[in-house]
């Protein structure tokens, strides 16, 4: 386990020492590293499999970011298209088709990622990965709820308790 952490730490250091135009921001790097450490620990991966999983998860995250940007751009075009009077039905139809395709790709991304992971993981590790993914989704949802509730909670407190 220590060796895996050392390997991942070295990879992170190399990634931060060689910045490129398409390098993710440091917070994304930290999030990816944290996720990888959790995956390595949960699945008890060897160093070789840890590196393979890192590549699979990195590609999935990069694809998710790309698709999210596309979706956001298409959403803006949809809003603009709907706001036009009269509505250009042909243009809007093309936008709807494109937006739906991007949403479908986003929805299929976890399945695609799992399919790639299946090729390198044992069946036991696959089961652990499915459970890990579900647990991680729950943790993220809870963190988002806490983050969303924090300003409201602080605003509801009297001024002398807000500290």
Describe the structure using short key phrases:
mainly alpha
Question: Would you kindly provide a brief summary of this structure?
Answer:
With 163 residues, this protein is mainly α.
Major β-sheet annotation: none
Overall structural class, as computed from helix and strand content, comes to: mainly alpha
- Based on Cα principal axes, name the global outline: elongated
Q: Gap between N and C termini, in Å?
A: 40 Å
Helix content: over 70%
Helices and strands, in N-to-C order? HHHHH
User: Which blocks of ≥5 consecutive residues have pLDDT under 50?
Assistant: 2-21
Could you state the oligomeric state of the chains shown?
Answer: single chain
CA-based gyration radius? 21 Å
How confident is the prediction overall: mean pLDDT?
83
Count the helices. How many?
Answer: 5
What's the number of extended β-strand segments?
0
DSSP strand (E) fraction?
Answer: under 5%
